[in-house]
Fold this protein.
Amino acid sequence: MPIPPMVQERIDAWNAATIDFGPLMRGEPGSWANARAQYLTALTVHPTPDGVTVDEIQMGRVPATLVTPENIEDGRVMLYIHGGGYVAGSPAGYHGIAGNYAKLLKARVYMPDYRLAPEHPFPAAIDDTLASYQWLLDQGIPARSIVFSGDSAGGSMVVTVMVAARAAGLPLPAAGVALSPWANLEHAGSSMMTRDGIDPTVNLVGLNLMASTFLQGALRNDPGASPIFADVRGLPPIAIHIGESEVMLSDAMRLATHLAENRVRVTLEVWPRMFHVWHLFAAILPEGRRALEHAAAFLEDAWRP
């Protein structure tokens, strides 16, 4: 089944918006600010759903966005961690996915605007997101009321920030959902070869550039960057969504296996023919909407007494 024309048009615009990053990551002259603004424009085509409000806030030292639905159930908070390969992206490009989550879950959704590489390399993004979680706890919100979700690099941080929280002695959230997680910066999975050129949005060359820009000398198998190497024992239930067309497919499956082998309850959903973070396209792609509904159902289950 081919990708619908309107979806393909937005994918093409998304891809075009990333072109300026390649030269920048290779150290050539250019403007990171301009490249990030262009990338953000491509993301903001995904509409904010009706029935939510969007506010800019501070989560302690970390700027953030709060998305609030008209109908709220007490005791429900999501920390949503945006993607962008640790070099791009911001909450402003994720009002759509956060708004859909907010309405499905009847929950407030907080999105930290964590620092980006190369100005702020590993582990700045993880540190900022952990600080945001600490801020939620400091507001008196019980950990059992909080769930995590994120996409791509943010999908990886669903796990790495939980591990960092446990190391810091913080109580862990109720559950997490990792959407198209960038789980292994070694890029060792077979799909990095078999899906390269089939995945319509991500390729191995680009991922290697982003990994080097983010890590700046840190090891690719550092557990804080690649959660397939992390000590995940004791983490709460985690769901992983990955598209069958993605170069990240094999490493996402490896993350699910790693979690399962360490006694973490895990749900893995592999969606045939789907591409990287197809959930963003929920307004025009039925599979995107259904996948978000599946994610919400998983989190709802975690909130049940």
The chain is about 40% helix and 15% strand. Residues 69 and 130 are 24 Å apart (CA to CA). The beta strands are 52-59, 62-69, 77-81, 108-112, 146-151, 175-179, 238-243, 266-271.
